[in-house]
Amino acid sequence: MPFIQSAVSLAVPAIALGLLWSVMVIGIYITYRILDIADLTVEGSITLGAAACTAVIRAGGSPAVGTILAFICGLAAGLITGTLHTKLRIPALLSGILTMIALWSVNLHVMGTANISILRMKTLFTPLANLGLSKYASWIIMGGGLALIIITALYWFFGTELGSAIRATGNNPNMVRAQGVHTDTMIIVGLMLSNGLVSLSGALIGQSQSFADIQMGMGSIVIGLASLIVGEVLFGKRHFYVRLVSVVLGAVVYRIIIAVVMELGMNPNDLKLFTAITVAAALSTPHLTAALRGSHKLKPNS
Which domains does the chain have, with CATH numbers? Predict the structure, then answer.
């Protein structure tokens, strides 16, 4: 019985936090898997979302308005990155880095300081808390419900003509151009949608922890990739809807893994190193497996 209670007390916060971060992972999925772009803008746009939302709440505004504003700010960040890449012909990776660096200053101006607190102020989670739900239960309901809505909306959107064009652009841009589709526009729309979701996740995370910090986005791209890969490995990547669901589940499982290794005594300073090694191992596994199979084929039969 004590073991079960300990496991529950460890898993519930991890699940709650994973669902809030899953919105960001969905955004990363759009750029990394659909557009085939490693977009580093997310390290700035997730902080931008938290900064914009908490600034609105601290000024006495509605948490819902602040959350919507965070999404719009993310769209703007994606628009800048997309414009740099498609119109000025700056490589996608460098475009993301430039926008990320610029957002550091923008976020400082939005917050007015390196961090901003909204402790004991109303957030999106307050109505759920007023119903008697615990903090983590509120996070799970809000994060899980929003993730489900986003998955359903994206599944519909990427089945439309515009969404299909975006998916085709990431898969084979030359073929899409031959069909008369403006691929630059598709890339911009994809980057905008991705960073909008990332900023939305930042708004949720900022409200859940009751503050926004200028450094909260550091390493978020690696966290997102780790969650994405864990989800694909454990839950598959066949049907498009299944892929989107696996992204959310991957974010949850990743948070549970982190909670477990922390409980086992890992130094918090080693957490980013652990995440980086996990992502490197997962990304290199297909290549190493293929190389190993090739070496076996070259061996003469005994």
Answer: 2-298 (1.10.3470)
